[in-house]
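anyone seen this seq b4? input:
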Amino acid sequence: MSRRNFLRAAFASAITALAAGSAYAQPAPLRMGIHPYNSTLALIGTHRPLVQYVEKILSRPTEFVTAPDFDTYLANLLAGEYDLAIAPPHFAVLAIRQGYVPLYQYKSRLEPLLAVPLDSPLQAVADFRGKRIAMADRTALIRLATIRWFDQHGLVAGRDYQIVERPTHGAAVAATVQGEVDAGLTTNSGLAQIPADVRSKVRAIATGIRLPHLVTLAHRRLGEADITRLRAALAVLPATPEGRDFFTRMPVQGYEEFTAADQRLMRPYIDLLMQSRETP
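predicted toks r here
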């Protein structure tokens, strides 16, 4: 081999080795799977400070990901496709059985609300007889809980009121504002994330239901050290610049433990979830 060809081969080998070393040094991005309770654009805006904080704490690129619908999100979650997840509590209980570790839930309770136009005559549960109510996916915790609440007051879906399907809780409220339905099912924190011009056109009727809120989970494959680091970092998140930004966008009063008692509260809703998935 000529000296020139030898130098070319050596240079190419060095570049290949350098590229391989660089790829080895860069860990794969973490996938943070956010439940698609709102539009993707709204979710990105809300969670950007949290994603940036996790990247800083773990010194590892972190990707925001969601799913096109609730069923796909649940399937991805249970398949372990997310390294980190923010999931509704009944989904979280199922995920814990599949290798996820609960870090925290949001401190404020999840309260289903029925958003109605400002001039609507609707006030109490009995007033919804014969009405059309927009609701997100049939696996949504607040939908399962609200249907149960209506049942307890003698109102049966499909007989006494009609459910109008919408992809997200935000879309359910938008349908109300646009006059397509009489009410839209959302939550206290979800209503706060809806654009102000939409929110100003509705008022909320409380159901009195209070449930555990969204749960932040980490997959066990991250390892004990990173999970411990994340749990400690999230505990102090509200006092950080990223945390103040995040909790302004997501008014949930910080974090608290997702307890065994909270998980037991989800049993009837998990049963309803399984039934809803079996119904064509």
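Confidence is low (pLDDT under 50) at residues 9-24. The two ends are 71 Å apart (CA to CA). kinda curious what u guys think
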